[in-house]
Amino acid sequence: MIEGDYRILVIDDDATRAAMIESGLREAGHTSVTVITEMRQLLRRIVEVDPEVIMIDLGNPNRDVLDEMFQVSRTVRRPVAMFVDQSDRASIEAAIDAGVSAYVVNGLKRDRVKSVLDTAISRFNALNRLRDELDRTKQALQDRKVIDKAKGILMKNRSLSEEDAYALLRTTAMKESRRVAEVAQGLITAMKLLE
């Protein structure tokens, strides 16, 4: 989760608009603001700056520019606020799919920059929590499959009940200071070697 004074990167090929965003950020108390107005080798430059938050102003972008910026958003995994002057439903959906945290149409005003920044960070953090929860759920399901398979091996080869097979896996895991799923995976791997 990101909190505090952020390293903010402003990307805009129009220096006047970029200066307005930078000014709004500095008025809001953000001191670490970097501006990029040159779009060549953009990803490399983003990596060099290593921002915590990215604000992109595109004005009236064509489809290629939008796609390129959506690719940036997918790659960097940072809160991204994107300003455009006009948009359509497909662009908005593509922006959300690309992980853009705030997609602001015709709303670039200096006094709104801070609220857009706060929205982008809050939304990014909320999505990250959901992603983490999804990852933990997927891992728990995978662990359960592995444990069930290992229990089946023990039940078949040692004539144990399901409860006793799980108790043996759990006891072994505790003795070895490992997770039950790791012990179960070790058993499955060993059985494959013996086949």
Provide an overview of this structure:
It is a single chain. The chain has 195 residues and is of the alpha/beta class. It is built from seven helices and five strands; from the N terminus they run βαβαβαβαβααα. Strands 2-1-3-4-5 form a five-stranded parallel beta sheet, sandwiched between helices. β1 (8-11), α1 (15-27) and β2 (33-36) form a beta-alpha-beta unit. α5 packs across α6 (162-176) and α6 crosses α7 (180-194). The radius of gyration is 25 Å and the shape is elongated. The two termini are 47 Å apart.
Indicate the low-confidence ranges by residue numbers: none
Biggest sheet details:
5 strands, parallel
State mean pLDDT (0 to 100 scale).
89
- Total number of strands: 5
Helix content range: 55-70%
What is the straight-line distance between the termini?
47 Å
How many helical stretches? 7
H/E order of the elements?
EHEHEHEHEHHH
Q: Structural class of the secondary elements? A: alpha/beta
Q: Which percent range describes the beta-strand content?
A: 5-15%
Question: If strands are numbered along the chain, what order do they take across the biggest sheet?
Answer: 2-1-3-4-5
**Radius of gyration in whole Å, from Cα?**
25 Å
- Tell me the overall shape: elongated
